[in-house]
Amino acid sequence: MSERKPYPSDLSDARWALIESTLTAWRKARLERRPTGQPAKARLVRVAKGRLCAVARARLVLADPLHLWLRAFEACFEMRQALIGARSGWHVESMFFDAYEDVLEDVLNTLYSLPYPMPWPRLRDSVHLAYRARFQLDGGLDIQHRMWFEHADRDLRTVLDTLAELGAIKRDRGMADPVFLDVDLAAEPELPEGMPPELAELLGAAGVTPDPAAQERDRRLREELTAGPVELLRLTKLGTLALRQRLLAVGRDAPLVGELAHAPAAGLLGVLADDYDPDAAGVELAGWIAARGERDAALRQLTEAVRSMPFRVRAQAMLAVLLTALPDGEGERLLRGLRGDAALAPLVLTALAHHELLSPEDMTDAERLLVLAENLLQLVELAGGGEGVEEVLRDQGPEARDAVAAALNSAHPDRAGLEELGQLAARALRTPAARLGRARKRRSTAGKSGRKGHR
Predict the structure, then answer these.
(1) Do residue 170 and residue 310 come from a single domain?
(2) Residue 258 and residue 333: Cα distance in Å, rounded?
(3) Which of 40, 222, 333, 410 could bridge to 369 as Cys pair (CB 3.0-4.6 Å)?
(4) Where do runs of H (alpha helix) occur along 189-264?
């Protein structure tokens, strides 16, 4: 007797019946859509003498419950007509029908990306905004628009019903998480403080008056979300697996907590810095450390990964992961223990200062110079050197000259970077690089007696 894979616990008998009907409808849809004269591509099942039969080449798929479920899930994206198509010539399709694949993809990707269940009112209104943009509807909500939106909502709920019965999404009732109250759908994008009016006008944001209709929609949504329990939507484990496979298939990044347990230390910190929020990074980092067995040895590997990173901005981001993702203040203790490390001290001090865990008053003079030099070196790296950095330094004038002179006389370990900084500053400020360093030394020597007496 051949051994079969166990059925996933989420696949009940009722869902198997739905899978069967889904695949049958999918086959019919493919038959109806094929060009005239071309054979049907049934792939999984066919109907023979009124009975549903397996296609011989699909037996391996049909013998694998999870693979079969994933095929049924994929079929939902091709069943627009079967699920929400007009039943007769007296009916018309909804806006959701016209934008079916795009909207369904966006809805499911949104559920995939959220750490909290999505309230139906927020999802509904977000989809309405997509309809307004796609079909160029004005901001008002007259009776006709309301009918269009209600028709689209019914069709979307029909598809969500199918996905819930299939086991891809789960519905609950409860209060919406406060995070969904923080986004103002009626607000215009905020401009940076101090932006010149001319630039604001170029961006199309100068003198923009709030849209009363959008403000009213936002007010009603907030009332709905705070009045009491609402329907909450989230992906099941099966749905999460299926969405992740779809994202990976089209080349999208879809990190999965736990998949980095055997990654090299540098790769782990780089991915956590780029793609993970602090909570997920903490879980992933804890799993990585646990897989190494000895915690102290694992932390040394992570520290060495930062030390060996040649790009300072990247190393800074990796160190920030250790600071924020290690639990119970362990990250801060780790970094404070590295203040005396000659190679890592500039990065460590910068990270602690950036997260307001170390003030300039708590640093020595030498440490403050290290932080200054580190910031300037990261500026050079971000700007790619050359004219970009020179322009920034030139705009700062004498202040930049003093800052660069101080950095050149610091104990920062990246001597090659400091040499490049000095050359860029010399070109930008028309001052020989050697004079920058000598000027700083003269000021430093002149001020020694004053500092000594003050101490």
Answers:
(1) no
(2) 25
(3) 410
(4) 197-202, 212-227, 237-249
From CA 239, how far away is CA 236, in angstroms rounded? Answer: 5
User: Is residue 404 helix, strand or coil?
Assistant: helix
Does residue 3 lie within any of the structural domains? no
6 occurs within a structural domain: no
pLDDT at position 193 is 57
Residues paired with residue 45 on neighbouring β-strands, in sequence order: 54
Clarify whether residues 69 and 129 are in a common domain.
Answer: no
Judgement on whether residues 165 and 300 belong to the same structural domain of the protein: no
H helices, E strands: number in the chain:
23, 5
DSSP state at residue 178: G
> What CA–CA distance (Å, rounded) separates 262 from 207?
54
Give dist(CA 79, CA 101) in Å, integer: 10
Rounded to an integer, what distance in angstroms lies between the CA atom of residue 131 and that of residue 128? 5
Q: How many domains does the chain have?
A: 4
Q: Are 213 and 140 in contact (CB under 8 A)?
A: yes
- pLDDT at residue 418, rounded to an integer: 92
The DSSP element (H or E) to which 400 belongs, if any, is helix 398-408
Low-confidence ranges of the chain (pLDDT < 50): 1-10, 31-42, 186-187, 198-199, 202-203, 206, 439-455
Token output for 47: 């109907």
